[in-house]
Design goal:
GO molecular function: lipid binding
CATH class of the largest domain: Alpha Beta
CATH superfamily of the largest domain: Bactericidal permeability-increasing protein, domain 2
Strand content: 35-45%
Number of domains: 2
Shape: elongated
Pfam families: LBP_BPI_CETP (PF01273), LBP_BPI_CETP_C (PF02886)
Family: Belongs to the BPI/LBP/Plunc superfamily. BPI/LBP family.
Subcellular location: Secreted
Helix content: 10-25%
Distance between the termini: 28 Å
CATH topology of the largest domain: Bactericidal permeability-increasing protein, domain 2
Structural class: alpha+beta
Keywords: Disulfide bond, Glycoprotein, Secreted, Signal
Length: 468
């Protein structure tokens, strides 16, 4: 059997998570305990922790406990070492290390109990000749405080560590009982100081993963979003909850502060063995606000910029009166107000208020003004998650128009809605989708991949849920 390397992570000052209300405009992340255990296990499998702390378990043995280490040739247990009383016992070093198996338990309002199950195999030459093999079981207990780093990320800090060795067994070779007692006593003195760095290194990996979630994420040509911790993490018996504050910055680095909704979001409960990220309405408003502020929502539609199959000539306006036929139209669309994004009843929509000036080209002369419309484009938003982003794709659902001015008599603008809808869907909406390809960034919580998550649109937020 294997005895655990059990460490108790005391997350001081934590309370149980709130009852499903997100009071801020932040991104709420609920990370299942399975993801935390998986992150630690993966760090041990693919990372350098064991090699750096316990020595490379190969024939080279150049690590901490390798041939040049404390228990190798010239080390504490070798001939001529501090414990040279064990005459004839030499070259004792780690040759085998069972990959730790991670298990953990979340303690609501308290912390995490973490266990790394492993066993160390020591090989050397016995005093009576021949190969000597020892198996050592260990139990490392540590206390870790939770702090916040200077850049606003959660960080686990090792405060105290103690190591208790379990059973030491002689697997092969001969070692007289008196010498076995000396070896056992020596290992009890030497190994504890070498095994505590395992916990410290594991915490280092976890801190890197937690820190990666909170940082600067580019928004293409629009600017960036900087995620920071809004409050101390909360903990339940199944997940750790992070309330993350998104700070939006322009390309120049200036903080952009768009209006924030005052109604708290009612976050649905999380199922066991799933992780969850809630993306607030505020981030959607911010993306479209940046597009409007940068002028990216404005467009000039000229014959050179539209597909050949898009109807854009005075012939298409024949119903409005006598116009010179076959002349190219020029459309100038301007958005002077921030679009309104709505998330409710399983539907996402965007309303863009715009003014549209329509002119026609005069051969050899300056374009002539025909009329100006005030309109509202109501667009349906399709949302799709990827590993690190929430992507938005728009389609025109409805176009409402009012006549602002005209060089001719007043006319029924409803007669233009079908024509102008076709033009805008084929040109303007496609341009918007290209600009929106940057997506809304998701915080990288312990490398959780949300590409296959279940997407749920709730009041003023979008919830992504993925199985652990």
């Amino acid at each position: 059997r294997m005895l655990g390397l059990c460490s108790l992570l005391l997350l001081w000052g934590l309370a149980a998570p709130s009852h499903g209300l997100l009071e801020t405009v932040g991104t709420l992340a609920r990370i299942d305990k399975d993801e935390l255990g998986k992150a630690i296990q993966n760090s041990l499998v693919g990372g350098p922790i064991l090699q750096n702390v316990l020595g490379t378990v190969t024939s080279v043995n150049q690590g901490l406990l390798g041939s040049g280490g404390l228990l190798g040739g010239g080390g504490l247990l070798s001939y001529g070492g501090i414990f040279g009383v064990v005459e004839g016992l030499s070259g004792l070093k780690i040759e085998e290390l069972t990959l730790p198996k991670v298990s953990l338990r979340l303690l609501p309002g308290f912390g995490v109990q973490l266990c790394l199950h492993t066993k160390v195999g020591l090989h050397g030459s016995g005093p009576l000749g021949g190969l000597l093999q020892l198996g050592v079981e260990v139990n490392v207990s540590s206390r870790v405080a939770l702090g916040v780093s200077p850049r606003g990320t959660p960080i686990l800090i090792l405060k105290r560590c103690s190591t208790l060795l379990g059973h030491i067994s002689l697997l092969s070779g001969l070692l007289p009982a008196p010498l076995f007692g000396v070896v056992e006593q020596t290992l009890f003195k030497v190994l504890p100081g070498m095994l505590c760095p395992v916990v410290d290194s594991v915490l280092g990996v976890v801190n890197e993963l937690l820190g990666a979630a909170l940082g600067l994420v580019p928004l293409g040509a629009l600017g960036s979003v900087e995620f920071s911790l809004a409050t101390l993490p909360l903990i339940s018996n199944q997940y750790i909850e992070l309330d993350i504050n998104p700070i939006v910055k322009s390309v120049a680095g200036d903080v952009i502060d768009f209006p924030k909704p005052h109604v708290p979001v009612k976050v649905p409960p999380k199922d066991d063995h799933t992780s969850q990220v809630t993306v607030p309405l505020y981030l959607f408003n911010t993306v479209f606000g940046l597009l409007q502020a940068n002028g990216a929502l404005n467009t000039d539609l000229t014959p050179e910029l539209v597909p050949n199959n898009v109807p854009l000539s005075t012939t298409d306006l024949a119903a409005l009166g006598k116009l010179p036929p076959g002349q190219h139209l020029l459309l100038f669309l301007r958005v002077k107000e921030v679009p309104i994004v709505t998330l409710q009843h399983k539907k996402a929509a965007v309303s863009i208020p715009a003014s549209i000036r329509v002119l026609f080209a005069v051969p050899g002369g300056s374009p002539e003004f025909l009329f100006e419309l005030n309109g509202v484009l109501t667009l349906k938003a399709q949302l799709a998650p990827s590993a690190t982003k929430l992507h938005i794709s728009l389609s025109l659902e409805r176009l409402s128009l009012k006549l602002a001015s005209s060089v001719t008599n007043t006319f029924d603008v409803s007669r233009l809605e079908k024509w102008l809808s076709d033009v805008l869907q084929a040109t303007y909406v496609q341009k918007l989708n290209v600009d929106l390809a940057v997506g809304i960034p998701l915080p990288k919580i312990l490398n959780v991949n949300f590409a296959n998550s279940v997407l749920q649109i709730i009041e003023n937020a979008v919830v992504l849920t993925v199985a652990s």
